[in-house]
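Appendix B, Record 12. Input sequence as logged:
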Amino acid sequence: MKNILKAVEELYTDNLEKFGTTSKAVGWNTIECQHLRFEKLVQFICKEQKITINDLGCGYGAFFQFLTEKGFLVDKFYGYDISVPMLKTAKEIIGNDSRVELINSPLLTNKADYSCVSGIFNVKCDADELSWLNFILQTLDNLDAYSEKGFSFNLLTKYVDFRRDDLYYANPGYFFDLCKTKYSKKVNLVHDYNLWEWTITVDKN
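Logged structural output:
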């Protein structure tokens, strides 16, 4: 996994230097698009209960900021990223909050109520399709193992008019079936919002 992610780590580190702490640094065109993705990821999480949460691919900490702004009762937030400069920036922005713990890792290492992934499966750089799919499947197993109540993730859809060689476009039906048969009976696929992607939530309650 380390080898396949090296180019990805370099890309996002370069983006941080180029764009600073903006949505473009983590691959989103606008903050509105970024927040729309976040809304889809948390749509199955109750706002009235205290939660612990894993954010795999936390970047500079935008998801934690979103959760607090939207009134989610975050008791503990574990943010993971493979880019050390990203984590350093996240520490400057959200690291002073006692609820936040930042970790340099491509996989979850702490159990939490929920785990969310936004965008880390999209940019494969020069990896081949099969190797990238295997990376995604390993990561989903990791999300399941470290999520007590559920997890969510998004991927670019295969239903597009144009493709880039460095991006991965996924079949939503394949992943819905995978999650339904392997992780939980309560799986929701959302593919009706105005972005070239889809979101799956896996509710283990």
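The beta strands are 51-56, 74-81, 100-104, 112-117, 147-157, 169-170, 186-190, 197-203.
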